[in-house]
Amino acid sequence: MNDRFLRACRREPVDCTPVWMMRQAGRYMPEYRAIREKRTMLEVCKTPELVLEVTLQPLKFGMDAAILFADILLPLAPMGAPFDFAKGEGPVIFSPIKSRADVEKLHDFEIEEGLGYCLEAIKLLKKELKVPLIGFAGAPFTLASYLIEGGKSAAFAKSKRLMYSDPETWNILMAKLSHVVKKFLHKQVDAGVDAVQLFDSWVGQLSAVDYRTYVQPHVMNILQDIEKRGVPVIHFGVGSLHLLEAMRESGGTVLGLDWRTPLQVGWEKVGADRAIQGNLDPTVLLAPRELAEKHAARVLEAAGHRPGHIFNLGHGILPETPPGTVEAVVDFVHRTSACT
Question: Distance from the CA of 247 to the CA of which of 50, 168, 221, 278 falls in 20 to 30 A?
């Protein structure tokens, strides 16, 4: 197996910088769009054979790791919070949380029963892959924000109002979510994933003080427990430059940086004993290939051949991205970072 991704996660020498990209399987690929013309997002996620097909699609571009095709919200439905994806609007929670009673209705479940299709997809993938497989889950704050806001939000006012005005209810909600997330990640490791990533898409909305007060104990409970499994654990938050020291405290053997964070600055905040993942601006892939490669070169220059760098985007690939540019950047990173 091509293990340069895993070696970089452990800060070991590699023959060249490994590359994978968040949302590397998705709407920018014609093959994926062809599947989605016939199937909804949830239908794809819940059909292991389709997850296998979609997860494998971007590997033709030379990625050094695959990431399980799924969605961070999948655990919510078996907890008692069904949702769907509205065209052009993203996820919509059918019954958003408005009270302590709503939180108390959320329930635990057996992962094999509620998310068994993900575990089956992992087992299918492990039979086919020649690169490591990354499993993942959404972090408690991001999941809680979807549950409370009912979908996407600009200011996260409802979530913060609950957090500030009723911290007891907030902590009950976060504890329930973190318990399920931790179980889900453990089951993914049991099924065969080689690494896991915790996505905290909206955590950058919090100050460092609020993060440490209302979020960190729950994230720490997840990450420091999963680290005991011996697989790389990637901790990623969007807009999180001001949170990096606190996120380091929370756990993760690899810290993901978004594109707003200068890579050298981020690595200094995280510390030399952690690997770093990132952090090309996803919109750069919409530019001419020459410019995209120039920006990729800046990321590599900032990493400075230090052990423990995984090249990635600062967030997911955008649907408008030309597939050829993705392939060109992967090749450029491999070619220009290769040991001579």
Answer: 168
DSSP label at 316? P
Active-site residue identified among 23, 28, 200, 211: 23
* Catalytic-labelled residue, pool 32, 146, 211, 214: 146
Taking a C-beta distance cutoff of 8 angstroms, is the pair 51, 69 a contact?
yes
What pLDDT, on the 0 to 100 scale, is given for residue 1? 85
Cα separation of 326 and 55, whole Å?
A: 16
Domain ranges, residue 52:
4-337
Q: How many domains does the chain have?
A: 1
Q: How far is CA 225 from CA 87, 182, 228, in A?
A: 37, 8, 6
CA-derived radius of gyration, the chain: 19
- CA gap 265, 58 in Å, rounded: 31
**Catalytic: which of 3, 10, 71, 260?**
71
Residue 41: predicted pLDDT: 94
Does residue 33 have an active-site annotation?
A: no
d(CA 31, CA 26): 9
Q: Which residue's structure tokens are 């770093």?
A: 276
Phi-psi region of 202 (alpha: psi -120 to 50; beta: other; left: phi over 0): alpha
Q: Are 143 and 204 in contact (CB under 8 A)?
A: no
What CATH number has the domain bearing residue 273?
3.20.20.210
Question: Above 60 in pLDDT, residue 340?
Answer: no
Instruction: pLDDT band for 166, please (50, 70, 90 cuts).
Output: very high
How many whole angstroms separate alpha carbon 184 and alpha carbon 178? 10
